[in-house]
Amino acid sequence: MRTRSREGWWLRAWGGTDPVVRAMVLVLPLVKLLTVIPVKASTYPDSRSYVRLGSWMDFSLTSLDGSSLRPWGVTAWLALWPGEPGIVIGHALLSAVAWGALALAVAGLVDNPVVRRGVAASLVLIACTAQIASWDSVILGESVSLSTGILALAALVWLVRDPGWSRAGLFAAAALWFAMTRPNVFPVLVGWALSLVLVGILRRRVVVWAVAAALVVFSGYSYAYNIGSDAAWTAAYGASRTTVSLAYPIGPWNPSSRQILADLRKSNAPRCMFGGVGQNGAVVGGGMTWVTRTVAKCPAMNTWATDNWQRWYLNWLVTHPAATMGIIVSQVPYSLAPTIWGTVAAATPNSVAQLYLGTPDLPQDAHPTQSYHVQPLILWLLGAVVLAIAGARRRLWRASPWPVDLALAGSLVGSMVSVLSSALLIQTAPFEVAQESLASACIITAAAVSAVAVGLDRVLTPRRDARAGRRAEAHPA
Fold this sequence. Notes:
Elements: H1 9-13, H2 19-36, H3 72-79, H4 83-107, H5 113-127, H6 130-133, H7 142-161, H8 165-179, H9 186-203, H10 206-228, H11 230-237, H12 241-245, H13 257-265, H14 287-297, H15 299-319, H16 321-335, H17 350-353, H18 375-393, H19 402-425, H20 430-436, H21 438-460, H22 464-474
């Protein structure tokens, strides 16, 4: 016989008995559509590697084995929509579904009505900020990656609340889709897997262990897929993805580029590859331009970099900890502040967006020198930690949704590792650095806001059985 806790969980996820939460989630798709319909799609040179512009149901850029330039989680989705206007609408709808699902999942954890409605409103408002909504109009992979990451986070919260095979399948599907949107998001899946391992140990549920194992497999598949795409990159650009990544650490945005270049010259790398690099470590003509131009004159560069660069650079980072920390400090503040590309159109006022996100309401690709700040995110993270400590001191954990706390903690740790790895691998203009970590930064923000809500509810509305437990301890029979 099915337990009551599993009956109709889809219905209860629809907001339970709170009509205010239901109304907010219902309005979200409409607001997202009204925001993007008047906006012209923004295309960039890279757009053609994701979708054949003006086409529909053309899956020629999609592969399951890494023989395409971009991962199938993006290319297959973009191919489903007719032309650029259709893609923009698809982006907006997917974003609305993802953020609405997360709002429902987190609101379902919260007993206090003010906190419940507040966290739902916060997540809906974040979805409608310029920092998020502007990417719906951009024909690249960022919008899909961001939305699927949030969707997977929502499915994870539902899973750990009451593990079951249907919830496990939903989360696994969302996590796999997310894993196949960008090369650098697999650390997020590892963070989720570790949190599920802890939940599995404490709850002894086979389904949780099975999902954790699946996440490890998905991470390995994502990594192998992107390594395998080197051949497709070489065929298209004359240089592999790995070779292209070499240009960033020796470019002008890396504070240690001179040192890296000097050490690279001492390696067994072919001498001909250094012809277009200045003494200050700046590549001539920009990263991609420099790579394709240099490889055309020095084919041995692509062979050496494809086989050796990642191993050489990882070893360099490990043996130069001070320089590695300098790179992190110079890049991470930009990585944690979601950037804005394309046309700025948002329903959430910038004054409200600044409560959650650190970037200004400007198109950063048009204002590349604009400064960033991450103070809102720092405050949300501090709030989550303080509330967690307060709950622990008052012994309110026993009957609270502690598996969700583990899931949110795993999301934060995995996403931060993803941000750090991106910062170490790609150093470029601030607005492009933020682009590389957009999905991970948004997961961190969403998880921090959700953790604050759960912590507030724990402190303000202790569960009845927790209160009963304390009374029993105070008045033993």
